[in-house]
Amino acid sequence: xxxxxxxxxxxxxxxxxxxxxxxxxxxxxxxxxxxxxxxxxxxxxxxxxxxxxxxxxxxxxxxxxxxxxxxxxxxxxxxxxxxxxxxxxxxxxxxxxxxxxxxxxxxxxxxxxxxxxxxxxxxxxxxxxxxxxxxxxxxxxxxxxxxxxxxxxxxxxxxxxxxxxxxxxxxxxxxxxxxxxxxxxxxxxxxxxxxxxxxxxxxxxxxxxxxxxxxxxxxxxxxxxxxxxxxxxxxxxxxxxxxxxxxxxxxxxxxxxxxxxxxxxxxxxxxxxxxxxxxxxxxxxxxxxxxxxxxxxxxxxxxxxxxxxxxxxxxxxxxxxxxxxxxxxxxxxxxxxxxxxxxxxxxxxxxxxxxxxxxxxxxxxxxxxxxxxxxxxxxxxxxxxxxxxxxxxxxxxxxxxxxxxxxxxxxxxxxxxxxxxxxxxxxxxxxxxxxxxxxxxxxxxxxxxxxxxxxxxxxxxxxxxxxxxxxxxxxxxxxxxxxxxxx
Length: 487
What we know:
By secondary structure, this protein is an all-alpha fold.
């Protein structure tokens, strides 16, 4: 045997590895279905249709049909990238874990910074937005007070057993999909125009208040809106170490979550475009989807559906809180943080196998973020998704050339999925550069990425022997292939 190899085999474990070996691990208690339930809940297709879809209808008119279909294709290509990476590296931690292993620690830490900032801010955005929908039944709700209560309750719920959370989010998700199904039925039973009218994109020109052809640039911007509306299917990766046979199951969970989301959003939006009594009236409404719902079903049904959307948003907050806790726990377990922080944040409860300290910490950050004005929160999170997707696509492009583990998922049509995804994301970033209104959001995202690289170079790289210590190949194989030793 080579002397260097023998020395490597006999090297004593590092303090970080000893600490990790002694601690309880996340338990494998989810099947593919449970993972998909939580992931779909974090996406919240119903709130995407009402909020992002409604805003797109106002701005891009019938162009929403083509835009969301094209965005669906792009999203599925990105899902292929996630699926292959997650199958190769079945480790909790989301984008951070995948990018670290495929592109190296510098890109991984930059991705960690993106998620560390964006996840609690998104929790705050959703929490502050709940009052808009609960307000239809309870007048005078304070967005701040409501947001604080909802985020706090969601954080507590996220500290429960992962299987209990899967059941709970599943119940809320059923209500959410019932609301989407109602929208689709209302539109398709009262079709006012031929589907062929959707093939020529038109929008309501505010200068003339009449319908006009939508330019190609407008359609591309609408595609961007669609990509953001579908965002979240990669969240399945956060639960890799809690899903049975993860190296095979997570790929299925990612792709299923993406396909279900695309269908769940495209179908009701198409139904609304076909069933609205007047397209100018629909596009001119302040809240197009709510306006269509009230027109077709009346005030009572509309009230019930809006309350269902409030539940959908609360459900999304619970699911994202689960993801946020796994992100911080994984980074702490890897010693990507100072030791004084890593020790408590990497703890998992012995009974429920939940990273309670990490989950509660992210919840506290989200509670503090609720005091930030909504427009600032939206600006701070506006461009972060683009950089996350860009790193994932690049990671998939680089990683595909490595030898795959037996039974691991391999994306079809390689290298088309990552290349197309990268081109689209670069196009989104370019469009932001050309729009002065997006400069601040883009600058914040670039600053977050730069801070991640700087933190790695200045703090982690000089401490490479004790910090950022990843799972070894044997531990990753056990995590992915269904080992139950720690369950």
